[in-house]
Write a structure and sequence with these properties.
The complex is a heterodimer of chains A (431) and B (186). Chain A has 431 residues and is of the alpha/beta class. Helix content of chain A is 31%, strand content 19%. In chain A, the strands form five sheets. In chain A, strands 12-11-19-18-13-14-17 form a seven-stranded mixed β-sheet, sandwiched between helices. In chain A, a hairpin with a 7-residue loop joins strand 11 and strand 12. The longest helix of chain A has 16 residues. By secondary structure, chain B is an alpha/beta fold. Chain B is built from six helices and seven strands; from the N terminus they run βααβαβαββββαα. Chain B has a seven-stranded mixed β-sheet with strand order 4-3-2-1-5-6-7. In chain B, strand 3, helix 4 and strand 4 form a beta-alpha-beta unit. Classes of the chains: A alpha/beta (431), B alpha/beta (186). At the A-B interface, helix 2, helix 3 and helix 5 of A face helix 4 and helix 6 of B. The structure holds iron/sulfur cluster. The site of iron/sulfur cluster has 13 residues of chain A, from helix 4 and helix 11.
């Protein structure tokens, strides 16, 4: 019987010939990633459970990015970073990217890709639900809680139930008014927020393979918003080129067999799709931008692991160049590398940074910032009855700060177009 | 783990996400320092929209104002309970508030794992929509050996889906206890 890519990677990691959906297996983890919110409790559990002699199973496989609550005066939040720093020092964790140093990176999922940790065919476990982002590299990646992470920290192992796979094929050529965000919002509206619970979401098709790695990450990033265990895209030349620029590791490439068994298959032609939003208060509350156009907004937000990559800012700059924003607009590069690229990347003779500055946007430092609300002094946080249009991934009540705020999720093109008009706007009207 | 748990029910709707269970701004408290850890109980389920908190009436907080612990021990909810972030603080907060059992139609994967592996709360699935049948404040009894839930107030019993593969971890009281029992770790 054939296997899907996800099944093949899990079988390899469990050192088995074959696995099938529903099997409970113990995986050998290749990389464990954690951050400032879940790292400290993970370390505490690890110390408590393994005692004084607690050992990291393989410190080269542990990667720590402080990224969530960084630029804040909140003393508890800062203490979390102190705990990570002390831990990294005490246990000689080389892959620690400290705040306030040249090594600081910003949002973990983007940093993992940039620093060459995403290697096809491997298993990456992170204490963050959007760890599924890395599946864009043909690897198995998923999020877990602190106890599971503490167990991995001591043993390198985790139990998983092999998921069934759902396949999403996008045919056709990507129109210039669509981005990966529109594709995933379309899927989420179709399958709802639990449509992929305990399942793998595999993406393929001409349109998917035409996407950059950044855009592929956007697709996989929001697999969790459908409840998915992981998102995954098979390796091609685009993947190999991206990795070759960042890592000299060799790797296995896995592809789904022709006779692999899928839970379900969905097919789309991107030429039939249109810009989408998720209305408040759920990522599956799908509407076309046309259906909600004209809705007044108070803020626009371009940032996060979903919508704060260089590709997202290229899209936004195309619309914002030479225009002024009509509402407070935040530009939050996901990582410090993206922040640097903003000043070096040119569009029609101007750097992206110049474009954003002259449009009147507020440029913030790289971190998760208001994507998850954060402490009171977090930049971009929603307050009161704000209506924000955002390139982030979640719009649950209170997610970006205020419980009374409305958050619309959209592509960077749609967010930029709406920022210029002050009302939700279809990017096709300003391109 | 006790086999029979009796307590008051707290009823919720579908898609209770982790931001509603414990809002992100509270994730900064230490889980080791008991005086800080209590805050997780205080803010458990504090971001559920008021009209949907404590169904069918709504407007009932899970943890009363000024309290650290809830008067409800058994949470009854709909589908996709615990969707959203990977924060283990979510089932932990429910435990700190005194919750012991959740009965929902379905769970998001990470929340389910965290509940079981951390030994915080027992996540039961039920094929029936119990949040239509049980009211907030009803006295209920969960029988873990026989996989049933009884609404003592209404004198009705429903069957729960057996815990299956995770039962050994639940019975051991969490992943580490399970691993020690089975000799995986010392
Ligand atoms: S940017 Fe948002 S979604 Fe991404 S890791 Fe940070 S908080 Fe999570």
């Amino acid at each position: 019987m054939g296997m899907t890519i996800t099944e093949k990677i899990l079988a390899k990691s469990a050192r088995k010939e074959t696995v099938k959906p529903g099997d409970n297996i113990w995986l050998n983890v290749d990389v464990l990633m954690t951050h400032d919110v879940c790292g400290p409790p993970t370390i505490a559990i690890w110390k408590k459970e393994f005692g004084k002699e607690a050992k990291i199973w393989d410190k080269d496989k542990l990667v720590i990015f402080p990224d969530h609550y960084i630029f804040t005066a909140n003393k508890h939040a800062n203490r979390n970073v102190d705990i990570l720093r002390d831990f990294a020092e005490e246990y000689n964790v080389d892959n620690y990217y400290d705040v306030g140093t040249a090594r600081y990176k910003g949002v973990c999922h983007i940093a993992l890709a940039e620093e060459g940790y995403n290697i096809p065919g491997t298993v990456l476990i992170g204490t963050d639900s959007h760890t599924c982002t890395s599946g864009a590299f043909g690897m198995f990646s998923t999020g877990v809680g602190n106890t599971d992470a503490a167990f991995i920290l001591g043993t390198g192992k985790i139990w998983e139930k092999v998921p069934e796979t759902m396949k999403f094929t996008f045919n056709g050529k990507m129109p210039n008014y669509l981005t990966a965000k529109d594709l995933i919002l379309q899927i989420l509206g179709d399958i709802t927020t639990d449509g992929a619970t305990y399942r793998a979401m595999e993406f393929d098709g001409e349109a998917v393979f035409s996407l950059s790695m950044n855009e592929r990450m956007t697709l996989c990033n929001m697999a969790i918003e459908g409840g998915g265990m992981n998102g995954i895209i098979p390796v091609d030349e685009v993947t190999e080129k991206y990795i070759a620029e960042r890592s000299d590791k060799t790797f296995d490439k896995f592809y789904s067999d022709d006779d692999a068994i899928y839970h379900s298959k969905y097919e789309y032609n991107v030429e039939d799709l249109v810009p989408m939003v998720a209305k408040p208060h759920s990522p599956d509350n799908k509407a076309t931008v046309r259906e909600v156009e004209g809705t007044p907004i108070t803020k626009a937000y371009i940032g996060s692991c979903t919508g704060g990559k260089i590709s997202d800012f290229r899209f936004a700059a195309k619309i914002l160049q030479g225009k002024k924003v009509a509402v407070t607009t935040f530009v939050v590069p996901a990582s410090t590398e993206v922040a640097k690229q903003l000043s070096t990347e040119m569009y029609n003779g101007q750097s992206l940074l110049e474009i954003f500055k002259s449009t009147g946007a507020i440029i913030a430092q790289s971190s998760c910032a208001a994507c998850l609300g954060g402490p009171d002094d977090t930049i971009g946080r929603t307050v009161g009855k704000d209506v924000t249009i955002s390139t982030t991934n979640r719009n649950f009540p209170g997610r970006m700060g205020s419980k009374e705020a409305d958050v619309y999720l959209a592509s960077p093109l749609t967010v930029a177009a709406s920022a210029v008009k002050g009302v939700i706007t279809d990017p096709r009207d300003v391109m | 783990m006790e086999n029979i748990i009796v307590g008051k029910a707290f009823v919720l709707g579908d898609n209770i996400d982790t931001d509603q269970i414990i809002p992100a701004e509270h994730l900064v408290y230490s889980m080791d320092d008991e005086s800080e850890a209590k805050m997780y109980g205080k803010f458990a389920l504090s971001s559920v929209p008021q009209e949907k908190s404590g169904l069918p009436l709504g407007n009932i907080p899970f943890v009363a104002d000024g309290e650290l612990v809830s008067e409800y021990q058994i949470i009854i909810s709909g589908s996709n309970y615990g969707c959203g972030s990977s924060r283990e603080h979510a089932p932990y907060a429910l435990m700190k508030a005194g919750a012991k059992i959740i009965v929902a139609e379905s769970y998001a994967r990470i929340f389910y794992r965290n509940s079981v592996d951390g030994g915080f709360v027992v996540p039961y699935e039920c094929n029936e929509k119990l949040n239509d049948k049980i009211k907030t404040g009803d006295e209920v009894k969960v029988d873990i050996e026989n996989n049933t839930i009884t609404n003592i107030t209404a004198n009705e019993t429903y069957s729960l889906n057996p815990l299956g593969d995770v039962l050994p971890i639940v019975s051991a009281g969490g992943l580490f206890e399970y691993a020690r029992k089975t000799g995986m770790i010392e």
